[in-house]
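re: ur question from earlier - yeah i can do the single chain one, its not a big deal. heres the input i used so u can compare w yours
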Amino acid sequence: MKTKVLVVDDSALMRGLLTEMINTATDMEVVGAAPDAVVAREMIKSLNPDVLTLDVQMPKMDGLEFLERLMRLRPMPVVMVSAYTQTGSDTTLKALELGAFDFIGKPRADGQNSMEAYAEELVDKLRAAKGARLRKFAVPAPSVRPVTSSSVTPMAAARIGISNKIIFLGASTGGTEAIKEFLMGVPADCPPILIVQHMPESFTASFAKRLDSLCAPKVIEAQGGEKVESGTVYIAPGHSHMQIRRTSTGYVTELQATAPVNRHRPSVDVLFDSAAAIVSKQAVGVILTGMGKDGAQGLLRMRQAGAKTFGQDEASCVVYGMPREAFLVGAVEEQYPLEEISRKVLQAAR
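and the output i got, formated as tokens:
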């Protein structure tokens, strides 16, 4: 049976384009296309779609308000379709907090090959969304107090045992929320943390800024050449691979706008490979929720170099793809639910 998709977008051109792209997949069918949330609501009742594509900015009721109501009353997999703008990226990150499965930018007419690649990515995300684990809806609120150095008791600090370890983390689909939860359990004086999250370049700055406002450590989008210091989290920018490099005065970040690896730039494997080669036993590797296999071989090389390695378990993943691939090749030393993994990683960084 084909996956039934409902397209929601205020642009007739975009509705037609997305419909055409999705219908090229033999296992999918667009059963309806709605110009706004009001029409979409009625179509959901009558057509019972399996997956929804949802425009971020729409008239009558914006995408966020509609998504919030939908996830309360009729939870279903939703892929947000967002413009590559500052406003679009901020709104999309909020949508992921509200329970959207994933997002994709608006297609851009940069040539036939790019449109074909976009269609392939869109279909892949919709396919994964149908079989994904829906997160429970929760209104985003600063109800969880970040773990600061002042809020950690001496005994707890001794258990954490901050040292000269460096943490390397990779994630993809579902990773924006998983990374946020991971960092909410990390104190302000944590070991350095280098992160690759698969995300377009127009989104990573907003992602880093949002995390910085919520978490105890300082969170920045790496620009390349930053000294790797404790208490700081470095997010790879969406336009470049991120690596770690040793200098005479310590470690620094390094960016390379080379070809994609495993179809991704930034790639988790590139980050993990540099950790294995440069930091080896002083590294701690973590792989969280995501589609595909990026990071599996890099994490294996980290483990072979003497690093401690962790993976998110299947039950807490939105998509148990990357952690599964890493586990199957023997790269993951220990698996834990998302709510436990930051504590276990910090213990390993003693």
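The chain is about 40% helix and 20% strand. not sure if urs matches, ping me
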